[in-house]
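Margin note from the TA: students keep mixing up input and output lines. Inputs are the sequences; the output is the structure of the whole complex. Example:
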Amino acid sequence: MDEVDDGGRPSPCVLEEFVADPRSARHSPTAPRPDLSTSRVGLTDATCCLGWERELDRQEDGVLLENKNAVIYGGGGSVGGAVARAFAREGAKVFLVGRSLAALDKVADEITAAGGVAEKGGGIDVSFNAISHGDVHGAPLVQMPFEDFARPIMTAMRAQFLTARAAARHMVKRGSGVIMAITATTARMTIPNVGGTGVTFDAIESLCRQWGCELGPLGIRVVWLQTTGLPEAIDDSGNLFPNYGTGKAMTREEIIDWMQEKTMLNRLTSLAEVGSVAAFMASDQASAMTAVAANITCGSVPTR
Amino acid sequence: MDEVDDGGRPSPCVLEEFVADPRSARHSPTAPRPDLSTSRVGLTDATCCLGWERELDRQEDGVLLENKNAVIYGGGGSVGGAVARAFAREGAKVFLVGRSLAALDKVADEITAAGGVAEKGGGIDVSFNAISHGDVHGAPLVQMPFEDFARPIMTAMRAQFLTARAAARHMVKRGSGVIMAITATTARMTIPNVGGTGVTFDAIESLCRQWGCELGPLGIRVVWLQTTGLPEAIDDSGNLFPNYGTGKAMTREEIIDWMQEKTMLNRLTSLAEVGSVAAFMASDQASAMTAVAANITCGSVPTR
Amino acid sequence: MDEVDDGGRPSPCVLEEFVADPRSARHSPTAPRPDLSTSRVGLTDATCCLGWERELDRQEDGVLLENKNAVIYGGGGSVGGAVARAFAREGAKVFLVGRSLAALDKVADEITAAGGVAEKGGGIDVSFNAISHGDVHGAPLVQMPFEDFARPIMTAMRAQFLTARAAARHMVKRGSGVIMAITATTARMTIPNVGGTGVTFDAIESLCRQWGCELGPLGIRVVWLQTTGLPEAIDDSGNLFPNYGTGKAMTREEIIDWMQEKTMLNRLTSLAEVGSVAAFMASDQASAMTAVAANITCGSVPTR
Amino acid sequence: MDEVDDGGRPSPCVLEEFVADPRSARHSPTAPRPDLSTSRVGLTDATCCLGWERELDRQEDGVLLENKNAVIYGGGGSVGGAVARAFAREGAKVFLVGRSLAALDKVADEITAAGGVAEKGGGIDVSFNAISHGDVHGAPLVQMPFEDFARPIMTAMRAQFLTARAAARHMVKRGSGVIMAITATTARMTIPNVGGTGVTFDAIESLCRQWGCELGPLGIRVVWLQTTGLPEAIDDSGNLFPNYGTGKAMTREEIIDWMQEKTMLNRLTSLAEVGSVAAFMASDQASAMTAVAANITCGSVPTR
């Protein structure tokens, strides 16, 4: 009953209902689009959920996630979308949860265009949480209201805890499953003027370790990705970015350059790399990985 | 104005007021005890504040914290008390902030008995936050209400952020100061059934790194202690402790044995060690340390 | 000319010769077996080299290492063999280097039976060093001769440095390539009575970071695997194992149990997992990974 | 008997002899200088050994290392000298081991001028190894002869292993003691063109962990310091320094600036800080520290 006051966030009962009858949440290129308004679940009142399955036109041994059902929170965002496309490419049935139907539709159309079709789903094999956290950057902590500092931490803790718990309760019954998250180098590089972002990412990683040690004996793995800033997801509206200790506000090109200089490969991570690595980590080929990150930071933060 | 809704927690104005006129908050063995009710500031309505200064009967070069003013949040607890005693022994004027006047009084009496006298203070040189966080142990996350998981994280983030920000705003003006915290091996050893404790400690360490990188150029250091469980602070009421993955509830002796086995020195950290190391880290002898921990875990978690 | 006194270890000239004309080192199920004695290169006088290519009977997009040439040092051992099989399965041409022709032959026959055929190779795309280091376990350092402690460190440093340098000199010309190594939890768990093994693994990881930061700007990635003990590679001759601080010598079953208890998944890593993860790390799908490990320790050492 | 071929390096027998009768190795301002040629022990034929004790003119509780005997390898160098002065200031009897009598004499004179007197010593309480390793910087690994890469690693492993083993064998009998080393950020910051230096420091830290886990149950602690580059120890002969990936050779001022930019405190560690922290780590006040570093890198590498 502790979910009662969670204010519309995904609770086990809602999620399991969704898993038990996901038809209304999925569509097919040849079928009329389902009434998606009936399947809205998730983080806020406006959260929507869509589901796809990639048409298995490849050999069975050529895909990593055949017969896997994956739910992706934040599926309408850059990262969630990239993960969704990669999961679908590797044979998974993908369910998207997000706040904006339009954003989910865009990802859905891309997957459909690439051969995805609707199909009735079973349980959840993979839960990937890629939601954003409402971070506030650009001011030092000493000038920041507590609420601006704390918001991303609490948003992340709530979302990561509740979606992982919902997935875990389901996965425990089957004795298998993979729970996933994503963090960025903001935490590991200790950069000024990022407000609560560094703490948020460190807290997400810590929570993944905690879930990992408790769920490991039950057959459930918990893994996450560590990325650099993702150029394809960086605002290109022409707005300036904070100085992050560099002494001056930066244009999009300048901030990308600044981040690239901190890598060994002299470039940043692509969304395609996020997707491919996420798919591998979710697959049985990574079955010896739990409580660990896949570090895809182009060498920004070497493993120690 | 962001402090307006912080509900009685230490805000810069309250703390600076306290610093500017701390007389009412301190007492002397030879003077009548001040009316402490007038100096209640801090984390809750019941929070109290006391101040002492050690009588400098040693040679000047024999003490680490001469002429330093230190405020200790959670000063009535085991850790806060140990730190207070060590700081006073090393020559600091010590101000205690806590929720229980009786607990503060006990520490105050010990310090007084050891030679501490009241004296008018100046600014803050050291801020040490050792408050407790209301952790809930003993159940796996999968059975835990979100609120029980989140409480210690939010309690710690709020207290650490606000007390550090208050101290930092004061220290920035003088271009020096040391902000301190304490964590335990619960985080680094990834133990099941500790609820949000591991995440809390990792978040505290992450926040210290963030403060460290932002305040370093301003001359302010941020350091923390990493301890094992502290036998002197472990409940000896006869209650059983959770199993922490060991398969059965543990008596006080069993849990101490279980923790000792995880160390290299086959023993746990003492409060005296906490105090001595805290005093050293707070002193100018540790002036090259910031954004780092003093690891006093008896070898439980080697430096990597 | 610094290779002159390296006593038969792989030097750039020898390796490049081998790369330029590897025909004699490979064989086909339909062709007479080549005279392998002519292709002996490597770590000692007895080192042998064999090469294979997997028959590409799968779709191009179904394999990770199509058109890649991989050289595996220690290819006759458990790990090297597992990596070789996985690389071949994913479409790579595999070259094995080791000290025992019989051991290489065994791996070669397995690959051949699975469809591998001989083919003329080009340059090196992947270099994987999985040689053993002559570790001495079972005595504390305080009783250990320096030579026994130092042997694995020096063996590893020499082999890892020289094979990586040889590969790097070749890969620099093409602006791409992946250099790989493997370590075990012996280092990260800080276990007594392992002699120089922990230092050896830490030094290998450190060297990988060093190579990574120097070769990253040149397009070459350097990655490694971190495993638990590998049951399939553990001596099953009935000999007892050292006590490793447990107080008594252990049978094979006891040592496996002891290692399993330290994991979250309650099991150890399999050779198949080593192979699959190695193949992924070597592939372009892991193109954002350098100076990092794939941690496949079943949760023994969570990412921090 | 494994020491037989160690070529003059400190072996247990030589060191214990030195400990048993250190008179000839120490001198007093009021006594004739002893014949130091009889006390030459150590790393090479030219290694010398001197011993001092600080005159205890301070109160007993004002010093950290009263009645402690400390041997410092590399005592004639910048770091060893700073440690020696700090140890002596804190009341320890200090024995210096080094390769150059002139360098030892300089440190000895400084200690004497500050009040040190000769006295007969007992066993060893602290062993600090601060020798240099013959690193070669300025070229990428891909162009470096193996010997240049391996020399510092082997020099460090041999010296750290043999001096620690000698001290440990002695300390085991008394059930107490502290073994110490020092590393620099070269390892943790993963800088190009440092040859084997990064690996050397990582290997030293790994060896300290190994010693720590084996010696902890016997009452012996093993700790080390992590520093930035030390300006007072940087060559001021006007020679240029390597580019370390910066694109051009650097003057002394440029290399100091470049290192300072990587710290949070915008400055580098001083020798006085090295000495003070070393003295604290060696003292009983740090009795809960083993297998850990004191990170005095001015915030270059935050604790994670």
